[in-house]
Amino acid sequence: MRDDLIDRMARRGSIEPGLLPQLGGIAAALRMLDQSADEATSVVVDDTDGLIKLIVYRDGAAIAAMELRPTAAIRLGGELLDAAGLRLADELEALRAKASR
């Protein structure tokens, strides 16, 4: 998602000020997930009141949260599925190689 926004600005040859908050939000979310991944016990998606929030919990307390627009949530979901699919494909390939020995 971040790379798509940066590529779009590079193709146009100019910085789009309207995209800077979104880029900042993506960077903040990545930092949050990096910092809290080892500490977190669960990540929850809360969609009450029509807002989509990604909340990271540790020991029953929320330690980080981020509000997502619906389109950003869909993109994030797609990227997570892609990443998981790639990892699963690698694991499947390793299992196949091991089984053929």
From the helix content, strand content and strand pairing, which structural class follows?
A: alpha+beta
The helix fraction, in percent, is: 55-70%
Tell me the radius of gyration. Answer: 17 Å
Strand order of the largest sheet: 1-2-3
What is the count of helical runs?
A: 3
Q: Count the beta strands.
A: 3
Low-confidence stretches: none
Mean pLDDT: 76
Anisotropy-based shape: flat
- Give the ordered list of helices and strands: HHEEEH
End-to-end gap: 40 Å
Largest beta-sheet details: 3 strands, antiparallel
Percent strand equals 15-25%
Molecular structure report:
The chain is an alpha+beta fold and 101 residues long. It is 57% helix and 20% strand. The chain has three helices and three strands, in the order H-H-E-E-E-H. The chain has helices at 2-12, 20-36, 70-99; strands spanning 42-46, 52-58, 61-68. The chain has a three-stranded antiparallel β-sheet with strand order 1-2-3. A hairpin with a 2-residue loop joins strand 2 (52-58) and strand 3 (61-68). The radius of gyration is 17 Å and the shape is flat. The mean pLDDT is 76.
Summarize the SSE layout with pairings.
Layout: H1 2-12, H2 20-36, E1 42-46, E2 52-58, E3 61-68, H3 70-99
Antiparallel strand pairs: 1-2, 2-3
Task: Name some characteristics of this structure.
alpha+beta, three-stranded antiparallel beta sheet
Question: TL;DR of this structure?
Answer:
It contains three helices and three strands. The protein has helices spanning about 1-10, 20-35, 70-100; strands at about 40-45, 50-60, 60-70.
